[in-house]
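JOB MANIFEST
job_type = single_chain_structure
chain_count = 1
residues = 200
[input]
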Amino acid sequence: MLLIAVVLSCAVLPACQPPEPIRIGFVGGTSGRVADLGIAGRDAVVLAVELRNQAGGVAGRKVELLIQDDEPGRRAPIIASEWAATERLIELGGKAVEGVIVAQNFDRDSTAPPYRAFYQAYRDRFHREPGFGGVIAFDAANVVLDALARHQDPRNLKETILALRRFEGVQEPILFDEFGDVKRNLHITAVRDGQLVVIE
């Protein structure tokens, strides 16, 4: 009778029950085009949880892993660094890069007369698109050349640039702050139908 009372009291009292497990989740692409990354990640988390449980869990509590494939039919946007959006991105990536989003200081749709003149001169000379790399390098070279035209001693180039602070770029003015960082507009570019397109 005493044994029945103890068993019944443990069934009613939460302190007699094993502690609730700690539940953690893994959400990743375990199917579709990134399955290799998702499966490797999932398996590593499974192993970590198993080893932790073998060592006694967390503060005496078992760890329970909940796994969710991140909906293989739904495609999350891929956001790349500025340097990814070269003219070869689409050539090398094909359909796999469709939808890639990049933030750049380069407006592919610029109608600014200095940019159009630069673009045409570049195409005439090199028979290819200048892309953002060409625009940034052209602007950088002109900043140096303009600063040298103002003060021919190259030892004072940085001080001259920081003193002048404003230079004309082919798409927009180039403004240096007191630390030498450039303030430029940001343009959001995406791969749409096999083309790099400014979307914002």
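[summary]
The first helix runs from residue 2 to 12.
The first strand starts at residue 22 and ends at 28.
exit_status = 0
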